[in-house]
Amino acid sequence: MKKSFFACNCCAINCIFEKTLDEKWSSSQKMYVSIYDLELSLPAINCCKTVGILLVRDLVLKSEEELSHDGFSHQSIGEVKGALKKLDLKMGMKLPE
User: Fold this and answer.
1) Which residues form the domain of 78?
2) Is 94 within the bounds of a domain?
3) What is the pLDDT along the chain (97 residues), one digit of tens a residue?
């Protein structure tokens, strides 16, 4: 099972939690999964890093058009959409404030 680490911002100290991707996560926990844990190809990860996308939270806030303008190929965008779908998320989401 692939393990993922994410930071919790619920307290003054950043707690580190370990979960497997098979476990049921809350939506807020999913937002702090690293892009490296999404099993994206190296080109897709490099595109993410270039534009400052490091967490799932950063990805869901972007639309397909924004990623396309940021230099993502159609294949990389497809990978991102597929990875988010596995987490029951999608691109272009509005997060609660």
Assistant:
1) 3-86
2) no
3) 444 444 444 433 334 444 445 456 677 788 889 999 998 999 999 999 999 999 999 999 999 999 999 899 999 999 999 999 998 899 998 876 6
Instruction: Tell me the pTM.
Output: 0.71
- The enclosing domain of 41 has a CATH number of 1.10.150.20
H-state helical runs in the chain: 27-30, 42-50, 56-60, 64-69, 74-86
Instruction: Spell out the residues 6+ positions from residue 10 whose beta carbon is closer than 8 angstroms to its own.
Output: none
Please give the helix or strand (H or E) that residue 14 lies within, else none. Answer: none
Give the helix/strand (H/E) hosting 25.
none
- Contacts of residues 59-65 at CB distance under 8 Å and 24 or more positions apart, as own/partner, are 59/35, 59/84, 59/91, 60/31, 60/84, 60/89, 60/90, 60/91, 60/92, 60/93, 60/95, 61/92, 61/93, 61/95, 62/91, 62/92, 63/91, 63/92, 64/91, 64/92
